[in-house]
Amino acid sequence: MVPAPVGEYFEAAPGGSPANVAVALARLGVPARLLARIADDMLGRRVRDHLTGNGVQLDHAVRATEQTTLAMVSVGPDGGASYDFRVAGTADWQWSADELDGALDGPVVALHSGSLALTMPPGAAALRELITKAADTATISYDPNCRPLLMGEPADVLAGVHELLAVADVVKVSNEDLEWLLPGTRPEQVVEDWLARGPAVVAITLGGDGVLAGTASGVRARRPGVPITVIDTVGAGDTFSAALLAGLHRRGLLGAANRPALRAVDADTLDTLLDEAALAAAITCSRRGADPPTADDLAAFR
To answer: What PROSITE patterns does this protein's entry cite (predicted)?
Structure first.
């Protein structure tokens, strides 16, 4: 539920972090499948229509009997978004292992996850097991995407983050996440610590100040933000993750067989990847709600 353009009202908008990533990937021309438990209620059907209308494959989605989760969004004067949730007994986090059978069938070169899906039982355990299995064949992309209202104590969440860093290849985290997970820790320190735990690429988004990143081979980068009029930041981080994955996909750097090449990405390539992702995220910030750009939208801004 996002603020309506006029008045003190809300309007329903399909979303959710992994769904936003899938839509952004599809709009950028990357074949995307969403693993999701989608409710068979009015809002759930709207979510399905939104996803299929954007070309996201739902052949591995579960038609769940529980209700749709509601996230209520408020937007501050600077466009920054804050969230409140209604999740008790809802559909999306109640995965069982059986529901994920066959999730990796076909030419899957990358698996992206994060946010509430990896912190809320009972589904979190099943999804973490899937990620570990997927690492044998696919690139693992991870965004902690912290939601303090629902995730419990930061120290407990950080322990779970560290577990996933051991299998993740591409990690994106925001400075807001880090302020909650690791208060007082400089982003540069986080890049070094998290890379030492296993990933090939770690990128920290800094809002209007751009992005800080590093690779396992020792490349370090800091790229500026893209000046733009911010309407709201809903879906900006998800768009960044998707655009980063899309850039890696175009360069043939996804898939477990390409892990050595991903870990050895050079400075120019990393800069270009980060610039593309930052631009995509900025365009999303210039629009209401989670409305990521298409490949044509990106080309028009260059």
So the answer is: PFKB_KINASES_2 (PS00584)
8 A C-beta contact, residue 268 and residue 36: no
Query: Which pLDDT band, with edges at 50, 70 and 90, does 73 fall under?
Result: confident
Residue 147 has pLDDT above 90, yes or no: no
Token couple for 281: 């995220």
CB 217 within 8 Å of CB 262: no
Q: Which of 179, 164, 104, 175 is nearest to 136 (CA)?
A: 104
Number of Cα atoms under 13 Å in the Cβ half of residue 64:
24
Question: Coil, strand, or helix at residue 190?
Answer: helix
CA distances from 229 to 13, 194, 239, 264 (A): 21, 32, 17, 36
Residues in the chain: 302
Q: What is the pLDDT of residues 266-277, one digit of tens each?
A: 999 999 999 999
- Taken in order 26, 31, 35, 38, is the CA torsion positive or negative? positive
Single out the residue of 250, 249, 236 nearest to residue 279, CA to CA: 236
Task: Name the nearest CA neighbour of 2 among 70, 50, 72.
Answer: 72
Distance, CA of 191 to CA of 295 (rounded, Å): 29
- Note the pLDDT tens digit of each residue in 9-18: 888 889 999 9
CA–CA dist 132, 140 (Å, integer): 9
Question: Which H/E stretch holds residue 270?
Answer: helix 267-285
CA–CA dist 222, 61 (Å, integer): 38
The full set of domain ranges for the chain reads 10-100+109-301
CATH 3.40.1190.20 for domain 10-100+109-301, yes or no, is: yes
Report residue 169: phi and psi, to 5°. -105, -45
CA gyration radius, the chain: 18
Query: Which stretches of 112-266 are DSSP H helices?
Result: 123-134, 148-151, 154-165, 175-181, 187-196, 236-250, 259-263
Residue 74 pLDDT > 90: no
